[in-house]
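Supplementary Methods. Inverse-folding protocol.

Structures were first reduced to a discrete structure-token string of length 187. This string, shown here, constituted the complete conditioning input.
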């Protein structure tokens, strides 16, 4: 297996990486603990009533950004891990110069190749790239129903730094799909 930059020849295969999220737990968010500026939130891992299986396809915006990075129209990091000449993992990240961060936009490992350290290796590559860029942190976002992603980020040194209960609809909140913000400080 080899980690390398995504090329134009990889695009069709990279877009087909099976990023299905499978989880039997979620992070329950309790908000409004306190009032006004003293408001806070509380997270608690809970079991799902039924196992979550979400196809988690690469969104249109991320696909477009990936193509822009590969074509060198936009600055960014697009890495893949290939196995037998086929991409089986993808990391897509964008430098956010104004924030001094490198933001991970997407990280996926094909369903058949999980639990082999590929996600961890790609996250550490992003951290190394952020250090080269002299960024102060690497940032990422996950949903509370994607506990495998939260566990990976926590294992790689990311700190949970906030929640956004308003980004998604009330229907999403019922499904425990609140946005979590993560940072891996580099300084």
């Amino acid at each position: 297996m080899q980690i390398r930059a995504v090329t134009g020849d990889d695009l069709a295969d990279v877009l087909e990486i099976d990023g299905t999220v499978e989880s039997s737990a979620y992070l329950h968010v309790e908000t409004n603990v306190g009032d006004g500026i003293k408001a806070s939130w509380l997270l608690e891992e809970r079991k799902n009533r039924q196992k979550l299986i979400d196809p988690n396809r690469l969104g249109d915006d991320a696909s477009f950004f990936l193509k822009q990075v590969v074509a060198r129209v936009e600055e960014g990091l697009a890495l893949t891990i290939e196995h037998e000449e086929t991409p089986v993992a993808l990391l897509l990240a964008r430098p956010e110069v104004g924030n001094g961060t490198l933001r991970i936009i997407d990280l996926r490992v094909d369903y058949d190749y999980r639990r082999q350290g590929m996600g961890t290796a790609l996250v550490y590559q992003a951290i190394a790239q952020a250090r080269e860029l002299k960024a102060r942190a690497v940032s990422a976002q996950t949903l509370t129903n994607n506990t495998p992603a939260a566990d990976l980020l926590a294992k790689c040194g990311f700190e949970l730094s906030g929640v956004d209960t308003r980004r998604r609809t009330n229907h999403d909140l019922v499904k425990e799909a609140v946005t979590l913000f993560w940072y891996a400080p580099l300084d």
